[in-house]
Design a protein that fits this description.
By secondary structure, this protein is α+β, with helices and mostly antiparallel strands. It has 5 helices and 3 strands, in the order ααβααββα. A 3-stranded antiparallel sheet has the order 1-3-2.
Amino acid sequence: MPELDPVIHAESRLRTLTTLNEVGENNRIAFTKLQKLLEMTAGNLSTHLRKLETAGYVEVTKTIEGRTPATYVGITPEGKAAYARYRRNLKDLLSGLS
């Protein structure tokens, strides 16, 4: 039976990786925009991003734009591969393949 990556399997992290895989230039998006798209609090999103970052699936970059701090989140090549594997395993699981 195919195994689902427990880091990705949590609903909020799955939604986050799905969004990062589909939007933004180079699959990178401003934290605040991602927060609005996912309708999550900043604290909740930060917690899930930390877990994804620890796994090497996302990269969080903090910069200064003018005089304002800005945070960007992007999916890493490892994150893209893990997401593709998760989707494939989920499809196999749902179709009864082992």
